[in-house]
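Weekly structure sync - notes
Attendees: PM, LS, DV (DV joined late)
Agenda: review two folding runs queued last week.

Item 1: First target. Sequence and structure tokens pasted below for the record.
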Amino acid sequence: MKKVIFTLLLGTIFTFAGYTQTTVKGWSAMDDKKFSKKLAYGKGTGMVAKRVEDASQLAKFDKIGILGFSLYQPTYSDKKPFSVVTPYLTDAGSTFFVDEFFAVSLPEIRDEFAKSQSALLTPDEYLDTDEKIQHYNSVEFEHAKMWKMVGSISNKIRGGRVDDIKGAPKGYKYLLAVNADAKMWREIGKFTGEIELDAVLVIETTFGFDGRQIVLQKIEMALIGPNPVPYNKKHKKYYAPFGPVKGYLEGLNYGFVSVIPPKGGILIAKLKKGKITESHYEGIGAIYGRIAAILLAKTKADWNDILK
């Protein structure tokens, strides 16, 4: 692995809980039970299960587009103006790691989806008209006011002096949508139908960094798509009467997973004076492929079980 130089701001000796010497190779070699020990799955069928009338109203997973592959590092700081802040990756650092992870993860996820007869498409594949390209470039997905308020409070609790670190591959949306709110899922799902996809895949990775070690703390994924159950007046009692999700929901979170690595964290790299001295993420693509396969299998099963 080539050595890469980053300009990294080094702050206090604040240390995140869960920094361990567990490696990617060790995690990827685990059997299914141990691998999924700290995997939480959330169903997305609850909003419509009672209103599905036949198989034509079940979610489809033939053509799935990858919409977001985002890296996130929450920052912590003291509120006092003279204090130093938690070490964090610069834009160059976050871009390097998100590009590295995406490059090796995409083929693995494609292969896993293909095994389940689902095609995973990138933007250059599913944006096949000028209209779709324009729509993709101009669309913005917003969180509900309550979600924004909670995020603002969280940032203040963590000091609020430094923005959280964010990264996404060029041409992809930076999204924190897996555990977002129905307003954002509604917008993403509606957009998905408009660009003629069955669903989109959103992936989020949380990093921790203490100035010496970079640790992968969490991977989350979701499949989001258009509401397959059409609007029906007789279902009005099921629609929210007010708020950001008022009325018929054009988009839904079909299913999502959140995975915490063994012992709370997987060592990704060690650094000294901004230089990578050790890298430990060989095989990380297989981890993402494995998690994506679990998500797709569980989500498909939940939707197919509705009519049983």
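Item 2: Second target, run right after the first with the same settings.
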Amino acid sequence: MENINNNPQDVSISTESIESISTQDKTVESNKTEQLELSSEEQLKNLEENINLQEDGISKLTQSIDDTKSKLNEIRESLGLPKEEEDSPSVLFGKDKLEKLQDKQKEL
């Protein structure tokens, strides 16, 4: 049986992930303000960059959620516990953040 690390940092959505996404959100908002003063070509370029930033954030967060769920299930299995049917608080938090990012993506 493989050795599973029971470190809580490994089974929750990382703070760095969330901070990175928050930074991306701030960049998107800042770019929206700047767009008012830019030409059409520059606005289009910035919009494409914002979309790419949002897509990256969504991908990273989705992967983080999946990794968290997988690690939690591995730990539960190693302890002889059944897989959890409901999502843990850290997964729910990640899903909420993911939903907000997806809503912002739709706005763009």
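Discussion on item 2: The chain has a mean pLDDT of 77.
Action: LS to circulate a short write-up before next sync.
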